[in-house]
Every structure is written in structure tokens, then in C-alpha cells.
Amino acid sequence: MISTIGVFDSGFGGLTVLRALAARLPRARFAFLGDTARLPYGSKSRRTIARYAVQSAQFLVREQGAEYLVIACNTASALALDAIQDAVPVPVLGVIEPGAEAARAASRTGDVLVIATAATVESHAYAAACRARGLRALEKACPLLVPLVEEGWTDHPVTAEVIRIYLAELTAEAAAQGMNPDTLVLGCTHYPLLRPLIEAAVPEGMRVIDSAEAAAEAAVRLFNGHAAPVAGEAAPAELLLRCFATDSVEKFERLGSRFLRRPTGKVELVDLGG
Amino acid sequence: MISTIGVFDSGFGGLTVLRALAARLPRARFAFLGDTARLPYGSKSRRTIARYAVQSAQFLVREQGAEYLVIACNTASALALDAIQDAVPVPVLGVIEPGAEAARAASRTGDVLVIATAATVESHAYAAACRARGLRALEKACPLLVPLVEEGWTDHPVTAEVIRIYLAELTAEAAAQGMNPDTLVLGCTHYPLLRPLIEAAVPEGMRVIDSAEAAAEAAVRLFNGHAAPVAGEAAPAELLLRCFATDSVEKFERLGSRFLRRPTGKVELVDLGG
């Protein structure tokens, strides 16, 4: 009996988390839902985001039989994790706590930088999760990075320059606050595609934490602690994955394969209502 | 008796149209609605966009007493103009037909370039409106330009480089198709803020058409044809404007003033439902 892991995002960036999960749990079956008709979540209220995220989680559990759930969306993790945990009877993991935990393990100075979307930064969820672990975190919104990834400019001089500008502003602000950061958290599921450019731009010796990888590590620990049905020895020939989207299936198939680094297969359209 | 002109956009880019209108109709009163809770319209279906746009138009006419309506949103103009005209009993003008008409007046070769968002390009509304006037149009989606404007990088070397790349791709494609374009239409209400950089990047002698300006010109002609109550001699000391948004009033106030080139005043939150 193969277990099904449900993975949810407002878009398709969460496929970077699914890819990291699949590498660790090769015998699991995955169901991914991108709530693309209602993205971006970032500009919406907490109540609306919780309603959308709960509907999405219930679809994965009730309709797709997911026995575990990963919220591969920073905004939903920041604003709706409790509501989702209350609404479905399966273990649920977000991306923010694992990212903060990985930063704690990596940092020696205790000072951490976080780059993310404007919505995630405004929630200060990473700062709170870092503070709970005795870390000081400085967060910066980098609103151009998602559009640059979606334009496909993941290895482009313009993107390298934008990253250089954002990181220079962030490290200058950290220095002005007397911080000595040694760790940078990628707090958005789009950013792993920019990791080579980001690694090239950070100061010498700074550790880069990918919250997608951190979430996948944490998910394996959490899910194995429950029943251990998903860890396997040998990778199956194919990824057992069904992808669902609430709108624009073509765009999902086109862009999703970049995040997954393999074709998504046929994406199925679902209607979650208003 | 001062007439009220309702101006509608999914966001606040349409304030560039309102600014152009106010310069021509200094004695009019304006009500602007940004349906920010439901943006972007671009990824949504025609039926959903029409429903949202009709609700927004009805709010401006029924609640705010608008006697004229300008749809300062390319996506809604492309996909919902008929539905809006059917739903409200006042003259309604979109931005696409005036932009195409201005291109016809400007072009001598009959070959026109259009830059716009992905959604507007995919609708091919500009190409159809140009074809109806005997013009050949080549459209290109420039998805990074709106985020660059919203980041405030309207006079930034990175933005200049992105514009140079997009225009080089577009003119190369036009040449490959045997076109001889002499006119470029800015088919997005965000792009007027980039006009200086765009003017600097186009080939020598190419005319740049701002669809916001073109729509304002057409609105004055249309509305004066109906009753001529809004054209005045002297500009009032202040712009008579009430702004409404369906979400994120703070962001609207912060960014809107860049498009309007003056403070928006206090933005009022409205709930249009679903």
C-alpha cells in the first residue's frame, strides 16, 4: 500500500518542495494542487486565505485520499496553518518552521537574513519563527524575483543584477542594525530556481538555506514518525504524481515542469468554488 | 451641476487614464474603483472577468452616480466591454479601440507594434482592433514591466535593460515577418510611467502611442457628444476624486499616487462580494 502525500500551493512554485520530497520518498504517491484561479494569496486577508487554503486541503484529503499534507506555500503557511490543521484529520506541515529550524542549525552568529515575497515579509512569520529559536532575523521583500523566474530568466544577467541590488540593500541594512549575519533563508518556493545566482552573490562564507529542502527533510521526519509507510529503498521508474489546478492548466504545465525539473504530466482542472 | 465620470480598473494602473482625463476635463468629478481583491484579471476566464467588471461598473453607476464610464483596464476592455455596456445605462468607453485608432492616425507604413501584459496579448484584442482599421499589428507580452513599475524602478538601469531586450526581440520578430513598423502602442496602463525609458529605446523616428492618453481624448469626444457637461474652462484648485478599492487600501494609496502624480486622498474600501 503506497501512501499519498498531498502538496498544496497557491501556484506552482510549491513543485520545488514536491521535487525535494520525491527525492527523499521515492515510493510515495503525490497529489499536487495549485489554486491558480485565486492567486496571488499575498494581497488577500487572513480570513480569505484561510478559507481558500482549507478548501484546497480538504480537496487533497477527501477527494485525493492524501494521508499527509505539505503546505508548500509561504503565505498559506504563515496565515492559515492552524486553520488547515483544524480542518483535516491528517498530519500537516508548513514551510516556515522547517526553514527557521534549518537556519538555527546552520547559523553560528545567530543572525539570519530572509528573502521572500512582500506578503510573506509583511506577515513576519519567518522573523517570529527565528525569534522563537533565539535567532535575530532581518527580512526583505524581493518582489521582482518571482516575475523573473516566471519569465524564465533564471540564468540571465538582468536577474543576477537584481539579486545583487537586493542583497546589497539587505546586507547594508543588517550592518546598520549591528547584525553579523552568516545565513540566508530562501523564503519563497520560486527562489530555489535562482539558487546558483544567489550563491554567487552572497558574501563569502554565508550559508544559503532552501526552505523547500528544509521542508522536505522535516516532512520525512514527521511522516515517518507517524507510520513510516512512505520511505522506500529504490526509486520507482516514474514519479507517481497527479497535478491539479483551479485555472490556466496550460501555463501550469509549461511553467510547472521548470520547478519540477521534469514534465508535470497532464494537469487536471478542478473547481473549488468562489 | 458637475458630472461624475466613473473610471474602473482591476488595479490602480488605470489612474494614468484618470490623470489624462482630468487634464482635459478639469471641471468633472471622478470616482475611481480598483478591484484589487480580485486582481489580476488576466489569468481568469472571460465569464469571470465579465462578472467582476459588471459588478464594478454597477457600483460606479448605482452607488456613485457615474454618468459616464471609462474602462481603464486592458483585460476588461478586451473581454468584458460588451457585457458592461449591456449592464449599465450610461456611455461606456474602453482603452483598446482608442489606442488602435491613435495608431491608425500615427502610422504611415500601416505596421504597428504593441506591448502589453500576457493576458492582453493572448486576447489579441489590439491585433483585431488594428486589423479592423487596415493595420498590421505585432503584439508582445512584457510581463516584467508591471512588477518593475510597482517596485518603483521607473528610472532604473535594470528597467532600461529589460525594455531594450523586449524591444530588440519585438523588432527582430517584426523584421522576420517582413514588417516595417513605425508606431509602438503602450497597451497597458502601467506603461506610461516608463515612457521616457521606452522613448529612449525605440528606433529613431518611431511614434509611441500612449493608450491612456488616446482613451482620454476619445472619452472627451464621446462624452461631449452626449451632453457636453464636463468640459470646462478653468481647472479647479483640486481634483474632485473619490477612490475605492476592494482590498489593500494602503498599497493603493502608496502606489496610486505614482500613477496619478498626486496623492490619491483617502481610499475607501468596498465589498463587491465573491
Overview of the molecule:
The structure is a homodimer of 274-residue chains. The first copy, chain A, is an alpha/beta fold and 274 residues long. Chain A has helices spanning 15-24, 46-63, 74-87, 96-106, 118-123, 125-131, 145-150, 157-176, 195-201, 211-226, 249-260; strands at 4-9, 29-34, 68-71, 92-93, 111-116, 136-141, 183-186, 207-210, 240-245, 267-269. Chain A folds into two domains: 4-94 and 214-269, Rossmann fold (3-Layer(aba) Sandwich); 96-211, Rossmann fold (3-Layer(aba) Sandwich), CATH 3.40.50. The first copy, chain A, is 46% helix and 17% strand. A six-stranded parallel sheet of chain A has the order 4-3-1-2-9-10, sandwiched between helices. A four-stranded parallel sheet of chain A has the order 6-5-7-8, with helices on both faces. In chain A, β9 (240-245), α11 (249-260) and β10 (267-269) form a beta-alpha-beta unit. Mean pLDDT of chain A is 91; it is low at 227-235. At the A-B interface, α7 and α8 of A face α7 and α8 of B.
Name a few traits of the molecule:
homodimer; alpha/beta; Rossmann fold; 11 helices; globular
Task: Characterize the largest beta sheet of chain A: strand count, sense, and whether it forms a barrel.
Answer: 6 strands, parallel
* Distance linking N and C termini of chain A: 35 Å
Mean pLDDT of chain A: 91
Query: Helix tally of chain A?
Result: 11
Q: Rounded to an integer, what's the Rg of chain A over CA atoms?
A: 18 Å
> Structural class, from helix and strand content of chain A?
alpha/beta
CATH topology of the largest domain in chain A: Rossmann fold
SSE topology string of chain A:
EHEHEHEHEHHEHHEHEHEHE
User: How many beta-strand segments of chain A?
Assistant: 10
Tell me the fraction of residues in β-strands of chain A, as a range: 15-25%
Helix-residue proportion of chain A? 40-55%
Total domains of chain A, how many? 2
Largest protein interface, residues of each chain: A-B, 23 and 21 residues
